[in-house]
Design a protein that fits this description.
single chain, 5 helices, 0% strand, mainly alpha
């Protein structure tokens, strides 16, 4: 669980730093247009920090790390996010500096998104395998349901 929390923490730091980078490079270059740098911090905070905080809760509930698939998910998802955010950062920086990014950047970003998708599929399979097979029926006495009042 500590590794998952540390991963969320690293993404939080990277998200804040990337927001600072975006603000400073656009200010330094007097850039006012659209760039992918403006959403790098959002991707890091949402797909990194918030996502792994949710995974942390799922780990607490279902012990995901007991499944061998969890390691595959963890590695592939993190590589996919790093590749995606790296491509976005390079593309955005080139845009701010007045250069065009070639097809290689688009190819790398596409590869990152494919890896993210594979990671998400592995996470869903892992959660599915760790769910209890039979959920016990709730005792109606414990539900504390008030009877319907008639008028």
């Amino acid at each position: 669980m500590k590794t998952i929390l540390n991963t969320a923490h690293v993404y939080m730091i990277l998200g804040v730093v990337s927001g600072l980078y975006y603000r400073e490079i656009t200010k330094f270059e007097d850039f006012t247009g659209q760039t992918q740098l403006g959403v790098v911090h959002t991707h890091l905070l949402a797909l990194g920090m918030l996502f792994f905080l949710i995974v942390l809760v799922l780990e607490k509930l279902f012990t995901l790390t007991a499944s061998p698939l969890f390691r595959w998910f963890f590695r592939i998802y993190n590589i996919g996010l790093a590749v995606t955010v790296g491509a976005m950062t390079v593309h955005g920086t080139l845009t701010v500096l007045g250069h065009s990014s070639g097809a290689v950047i688009a190819l790398v970003a596409g590869l990152g998104h494919i890896l993210l998708t594979v990671g998400l599929v592995l996470l869903f399979i892992t959660v599915g395998k760790r769910l209890p097979t039979a959920m016990p029926m709730a005792d109606t006495a414990e539900l504390d349901v008030a009877p319907h009042a008639t008028v």
